[in-house]
Design goal:
This protein is an alpha/beta fold and 371 residues long. It has 15 helices and 10 strands. The protein has an 8-stranded parallel β-barrel with strand order 1-2-3-4-5-6-7-8, surrounded by 9 helices. The structure holds manganese (II) ion.
Length: 371
């Protein structure tokens, strides 16, 4: 089997999230971090957007990272020229492929869409660029039209095809069927680009890879348009543990890059966010905490260290005597059975009142009161 590669688009689709704007320093930091953990390809922006974006792209190109850098373009020659002016050697050319998109953007004139693709592709190839072609709204496209379009792009010299589930309406089974048909008909690799409108972006990306796609777009924290994209940390860890595909990425820094991008985006993640949420290795309930203390595999799918996270035993409303004693012992406090029960009752009362678990300090001061 050929190697599956991540093509991370935090700096393009991720930044397109409503209310998100990275500054130059943040873009540089994110690009460097992605490169440092071993992401082999990064989509870094849209040169046609104007001077500030061009400056950011050119600055990232000048970093001479290991990763291949890609710029996003419409099928417009001036877009490609703007990408070239930034120093990019790889371009992605996006065309709409569904009736609804071609109707809205090209008055239904699909011949014009194909003509613009051929012209811009030829121009890019003449400049010696690597060209990826993307089918916007591939998931809702007529399957025969999609196949004919991709075969034409391949014939004209495209090096890869991006299958976009632009509005996130596929499920993993349909994704597998559609991508399998393309993969078996094409000689160029297929790339997955999935959106999370129904919470299936990561699942659909995995389904596409299972069907033979060899490249996958991700964003850190799943940042992106509307409900976002397939999350880098989820795709990497799910491929590693569920599909047994190790991409060679340094997973021990996934929490760190998640925090970097969360800060740059200005939004906190929910504590239960898959892989990198602050609760993914926190245990409060008596039964779970007791199990984890016996053997972490009871309630953890993998070791927290693998993503740079730490296990936390949290005392709160659902905690039991065993967990409470264990946490107190870590602070050198040993209580008899009666005292333990009394502290536990106080913990339950206070965490119900506060609607959260207790901090270590709060717990210790409760013990002080009860002793
Ligand atoms: Mn997208």
């Amino acid at each position: 089997m050929n190697q599956v590669v991540i093509n991370d688009t935090t700096l393009r689709d991720g930044e397109q999230a409503a209310g998100v704007a990275f500054n130059l320093e943040e873009k540089i930091a994110i690009a460097k971090f992605l490169d440092a953990i071993g992401v082999p390809e990064i989509e870094i922006g849209i040169a046609a957007m104007g001077a500030a974006e061009q400056q950011a792209i050119a600055t990232i190109v000048d970093l001479n990272l290991q990763a291949h850098l890609l710029g996003w373009n419409r099928a417009v020659i001036s877009d490609i020229q703007a990408s070239i002016a930034c120093g990019l050697k790889r371009v992605h050319i996006s065309i709409p492929v569904s009736a609804i998109q071609i109707g809205a953007k090209f008055q239904g004139n699909w011949q014009l869409v194909l003509q613009k693709l051929q012209d811009s592709l030829n121009f890019a190839l003449d400049q010696g660029l690597f060209v990826s072609v993307g089918g916007e709204d591939s998931s809702r496209a007529d399957e025969q039209f999609l196949l004919d379009t991709v075969l034409a792009a391949q014939e004209w010299g495209a090096s890869r095809f991006r299958f976009c589930d632009t509005v996130g309406i596929l499920d993993p089974f349909t994704t597998h069927d559609k991508v399998k048909k393309l993969v078996t008909s094409l000689s160029i690799p297929v790339e997955m680009h999935t959106h999370n409108d129904f919470g299936l972006a990561t699942a659909n990306a995995l389904a596409g890879i299972k069907a033979g796609a060899l490249s996958v777009n991700t964003t850190v924290n799943g940042l992106g348009e509307r409900a976002g994209n397939a999350a880098l940390e989820e795709v990497v860890m799910a491929l590693k543990h569920l599909s047994k595909i190790d991409l060679g990425i340094d997973t021990r820094r996934l929490l760190e890059i998640s925090q970097l991008v969360a800060t740059a985006s200005g939004y906190n993640l929910p504590p239960w966010k898959a892989i990198v949420g602050e609760n993914t290795f926190a245990h409060e309930s008596g039964i779970h905490a007791h199990g984890v203390m016996q053997n972490p595999h009871t309630y953890e799918p993998f070791a927290p260290e693998e993503i740079g996270q730490e296990r936390r035993l949290v005392v709160g409303k659902h905690s039991g005597r065993h967990l409470l004693s264990n946490v107190l012992q870590q602070h050198g406090i040993i209580l008899n059975s009666e005292e333990t029960q009394s502290v536990l009752n106080a913990v339950r009362q206070e965490s119900t009142q506060k609607k959260r678990s207790l901090t270590t300090q709060e717990l210790l001061s409760l013990v002080g009161v009860k002793q």
